[in-house]
Amino acid sequence: MKDKLQALKSEALQAIQQAEQLSQLQDIKVTYLGKKGPITEILRGMGKLSKEERPVIGQMANDVREAIQAALDEKHATLEQARIEEQLAEQAIDVTLPGRPVNQGSQHPLFTVIEEVEDLFIGLGFSVAEGPEVETDYYNFEALNLPKNHPARDMQDSFYLTEEILLRTHTSPVQARTMEAYNGQGPVKVICPGKVYRRDTDDATHSHQFTQIEGLYVDKNVRLSDLKGVLTVFVKQLFGEDRDVRLRQHYFPFTEPSVEMDISCFKCGGSGCPVCKHSGWIEILGAGMVHPNVLRMSGFDPEVYTGFAFGMGPERIAMLKYGVDDIRHYYTNDQRFLKQFKRV
Ligand code: PHE
Fold it and tell me: Whose CA is nearest to atom 5 of ligand 1?
């Protein structure tokens, strides 16, 4: 009997020793210590033993059971620890790995130009004004000296929503709205960036929706030379100190006199190249002295106040600055185009 117990013990301990998984320990426990296991059987058969043998075998069987249980517990702890360590290793996060790159957007080139122009004019004492894109016929045309049936309305083919409401065709209505808000008291110094709409067939240089930046300076004794001075500062800052400017006579209903401003070509310096169409000059904006009728309609006395106004297209400026060859690139949102412009 003693030998049998001894053999059971070493068999069980060896099995425990070799076990590699927690589930195996459970099987070993059932096999050796379970209700139908050999030790229980021995203990149950104690009645058949002699009086002398009984305590000895009983004691020994208990010792064997405890030894097996102790070995099981110890192995259980070891395997459990190993399992936890394995899990930790598996789930470990390597914080030193480089992260996945975040797809960063870049600023749209038109906004870069608009902000640059805004900053420049803010530096010259202007403030930024805005107005509605859905505008009344009055502000878009009439208040700008373009009464109904004025032939010059044809210069700006319009999207009418009703007889009296349209999508603004230029940012000049913001001039009229701003002057009205000043109640005839100057100085008014604003620039007005925003979207405008015209019924145009889209091609490389035309778009039915584009942006403009309007400028307006109304005060006592504002002269054409002030216009030229301010715009020269602007052009040199945007296109380089070496730029020359020239004013060409033009016609706008809301300014008198009216001019178009050219800059000397920044590509060839004036000698002639494809960018300036071999003329040496690049047209950059329209401008003029605010028409007395416009001042009057917006509440300013043209006998006291004079002013200049100008309007430019950020699309064209960005095309020239960045060498963009098709205006549609600004609106078709091709990432290959947009990504070339760095975040600022
Ligand atoms: N509003 C004019 C246009 O869109 C530009 C302009 C503005 C001209 C202000 C003169 C003065 O063509």
Answer: 311
Q: Which residues on neighbouring strands pair with residue 258, listed in sequence order?
A: 250, 288
95, part of any domain: no
**Residues in the chain, overall count:** 344
In terms of C-beta density within 10 A (0-12 exposed, 13-18 middle, 19 or more buried), how is residue 196 classed?
buried
Closest residue by CA, ligand 1 atom 9? 310
**What is the model's pLDDT at position 344?**
57
Q: Are 82 and 157 part of one and the same domain?
A: no
Instruction: Tell me which residue of 162, 164, 174, 163 sits closest to 133, measured CA to CA.
Output: 174
Number of domains into which the chain is organized? 2
- How far apart are the CA of 324 and the centre of ligand 1, in A? 23
Residue 175 CA: nearest ligand 1 atom is: 9
Same domain, 154 and 10: no
Distance 286 CA to ligand 1 centre (A): 5
Residues with C-beta less than 6 Å from any ligand 1 atom = 170, 172, 214, 252, 255, 286-288, 309-311
Q: Indicate whether 17 and 80 sit together in one domain.
A: yes
Range of the domain at 45: 2-88
Task: For residues 156 and 305, state if they share a domain.
Answer: yes
Atom of ligand 1 nearest to the CA of 169: 4
Angle at 320 between CA 338 and CA 197, to 5 degrees: 70
Does one domain contain both 229 and 337? yes
Domain boundary among 56, 88, 120: 88
Q: Say how far apart CA 268 and CA 310 lie, in whole Å.
A: 26
Looking at ligand 1, which residue's alpha carbon is closest to its atom 2? 311
Amino acid sitting at position 283? E
The predicted-structure confidence for 25-68, as pLDDT tens digits, reads as follows: 888 888 888 888 888 888 888 888 888 888 888 888 888 888 88
Ligand 1 atom with the shortest distance to the CA of 287: 10
Q: Give pLDDT, residue 343.
A: 61
Same domain, 83 and 19: yes
* CA-proximal residue: ligand 1, atom 6 (nearest): 311
Q: Are residues 42 and 144 in the same domain?
A: no
Q: Which atom of ligand 1 is nearest to the CA of 258?
A: 10
